[in-house]
Amino acid sequence: MATGVKEKEKERVDTELLDDEFEQDEDTQENKFLTFVLGNEEYGIEIRYVTEIIGIQHVTCVPDLPEFVKGVINLRGKVIPVMDVRLRFHMQERKYDDRTCIIVINISDQPVGLIVDQVSEVLDIQKSEIEPPPKVKKDSSSLFVQGMGKVGDQVKILLNADKILYGVEEALKSAGA
Description:
This protein is of the alpha+beta class.
């Protein structure tokens, strides 16, 4: 009988440790942003959405998708749509080079690759250092901005991952991808 109680106690302690580790993982991701470059500006996306960063690879074109969705890639047996963030923001298209990479993010169990000019670093930006985006004009690119992160004398444009993906899932479904 005492052995059964000890096993249950050990199981409870192991579960609590796992819960504590999970909470610590979430805490370590809070206020952290993966920064990347598009043109002359630096952008950031919350690290909690980032699954991995991979080099640019062959993209299979899928017909009838928005211009900014370049197609899909096969990432370890999983087909993932990829979008060129430059095109999503109505910036001029640019030829991919050895610094171009794909940031794989996961939003609501939907992995998506974001093609960016280059990845910079992971920054810790406290909430007190983030201001709301300027309300100059309601154009489509400002819809994607979560806030403006102040880092030293620079400003990083912090993106709302959910809003970047808005419309991508619907487009993929309608194209049969």
